[in-house]
């Protein structure tokens, strides 16, 4: 069973969290929030071609659409669960090597209708969410964190978004 919150439902709060002091990433169940959209991008040295399918095992960056910061983790403890802190880092989609995750899924490609895990390349944790909720000023938002083992709390589903089809070759004129 996939987690009840989705990466597309994850919300960036505008407060600094304890630990790293970077922008925290929280999970909400409301899908109608402009803060809930993320873009999947390739590594800086290996960008994704627009519209191409993402392979299981492929390294990616997950960039918040509104702030252009990357989903990031490092060896700081998360404030509520004491797992590994997950934050938003970088400017204009550029961060560092701790922004890279691999897509963990069954099959050859990430199917948007199937559950998926994101495993952090630098620290080997899985992007997860459990029941821990923040109080003031972000009451009710759930902590997103890195978990050391795969389980039902780190399965994600793509719920909505813009899915770009691969470019088609331009039409050719062979009559000449």
UniProtKB/TrEMBL annotation:
SMART domains: MIR. It comes from the Eukaryota. InterPro entries: MIR_dom_sf, MIR_motif. Transmembrane segments: none annotated. Keywords: Repeat, Signal. The keyword Signal applies. Residues 51-106 form the MIR domain. Residues 1-27 form the signal peptide. The keyword Transmembrane helix does not apply. PANTHER family: STROMAL CELL-DERIVED FACTOR 2-LIKE PROTEIN, STROMAL CELL-DERIVED FACTOR 2-LIKE PROTEIN 1. This is MIR domain-containing protein. It comes from Xiphophorus couchianus (Monterrey platyfish).
